[in-house]
Amino acid sequence: VTLTRKEAEELRPWVDRTVQKFLGFEEPTLVTAAVSCLSSGFDRAETARKLSSLLDDSKAASLAEQLLTGAVEQLRTKQRQAQDDDGPRKSRFSEMPPVIGQPSPGQLTTLQIREMMANAQRMIEERKKALGGSVPTPVVPVAAAVADSRNRIAELTAQIQAKLGSRPGFLQQPAATPASVATRPTPLILNAEGRTVDSTGREVQLAHHTPTLKANIRAQKREQFKIHQEKLGEDVAEQNFFDQRVGAKPVQRGRRGFRFHEKGKYEQLAQRLRTRAKLERLQQEIAQAAKRTGISSATKIALMVPAARAKEGKEEIPDVEWWDTFIIKGESYDNVIEAVVAGGAPLENLLEGVTNLVEHPIQMKAPTLPPRGPPPLPVFLTQKERKKLRRQNRREAWKEKQEKIRLGLEPPPEPKVRMSNLMRVLGSQQVQDPTKVEAHVREQMAKRQKAHEEANASRKLTTEQRRDKKLRKLKEDTTRGVHVAVYRVLSLTNPAKKFKVEMNAKQLFLTGCVVLYRNVNLVVVEGGPRQQSKYRRLMLSRIKWSEDTIQGEGDKTEKNQCTLVWEGTVKSRSFGELKFKVCPTESLAREHFRKHGVEHYWDLAYSSTLLELADA
Description:
The chain is 52% helix and 6% strand. It starts with a helix and ends with a helix. The longest helix is centred in the first third of the chain and has 30 residues, at 57-86. The chain has a five-stranded mixed beta sheet, sandwiched between helices. Among the domains are: 5-83, PWI domain, CATH 1.20.1390.10; 110-175; 283-308 and 318-355, no CATH class; 383-413; 481-615, Alpha-Beta Plaits. It is α+β, with helices and mostly antiparallel strands.
């Protein structure tokens, strides 16, 4: 396909639509390249190669085929339209070309005259029938009118035929006119004086349309509108429901002037909005913090201050207590008493801040409950990983130090001289004065050794720090719960074992008590889980209770033993430092535990002892 530059530019809108339909979006560069290919007369392969720089090969080939095929169809369509436009155009009067021998359009033929007469008679008859029922139609005037019309028509026909008698072709009988004659414009009828008349011969005044200016048309419409408004105003004023006090809306809207904003107005508004939002956010945070920590109730109590304090040195009884001045509106209790006793004004109207709402305390989680979810497992590195991590840390520290030396932030270190690299580092100085150089090297070695020892000593814990570290290991956090263990020993008469029981409890910072009563000697200890584990090992494994013998009933002897009666968790501690309590009777022992609110410890141990004796 070979196109001229003009034809290619005419096809540019079609090419643009084709590219947009193919890609889904507009691409002016691709449209320009396609138009250039069409104007250059490229074939399909050359067009695809040209478009492949902008598209994929497959898409370029498909688009090239669409462009060439569509361009051919567009050219054929344009040529077909051009041929249709170049054909002969039909005139409005082409259906009846003027032919010699036929009457002119303005001449009345005999057939037309007959039709006019028939129509006139038909109209007269219809008029007679319409008026026949009410008013009798006089016969003479109608006949006279018909006769007058006939005479007039005859005269006109004679005049026209006399004028055109010299032309025999015009007086011939015309052929039957086609149906399209009825669609032609109404013929113009002129009388002898040249005036326009209708089919009955009466004069017709034609409307003459003359052009005018737009300004004159607008002025004329404005005058008509004013006259119409004046008439409406007069009609409204005459009505009874018209109120003259109400201002009438003007017909035309008034012209408004410009109002310019000052520079920085909207910046100030934005700054105000930001400040207000910041204050609101800050107030919300303060309110949430106060509600979470319980400060809101304390703040209300702190606001309850007396309205007026008595002078110093005078102890007068106030009319209203200072804690009531915050809620009582008056300065005395009289109004409140009258409202309560006499049933006057409601009590809610006399008190401020008293509502039917209840301020509930913050719900706290039970400290004895375990934390939600399992604790995270600690990550332990292998020996190789620890060495690698240590090397990396040393490398980073060395790089940082070298960077500081390079920037001049730190002085460069002295060369690390040893006896083995003495000649390699100092060189000529060693040859000049070897004794001095050796002394300098040994001094540096001693200095480095001292710095190393001082660094190690600084990392060591002091005596107090080591003591605190041991205490931290021994002491445990008991805020989430206290672990309790109850041991029953048959005999605690051995002073050595008694000392071990007391001293280990103090060293492990355990609290509790030891109750001595016959063969029911109870040891109650309270502490953390690790403390209980160490003390359990002491009571059940380390102390050899079986070494002691106890005199039983008669000549029987039995070995001493220690039994774990119960262990569990409680909310708080019940005892202080571990102490011994001698109880000669069972009631005194139970009373001792009841004072501390744990008499069930004694009941459990004493009942188990009775069961063992019953089994024996």
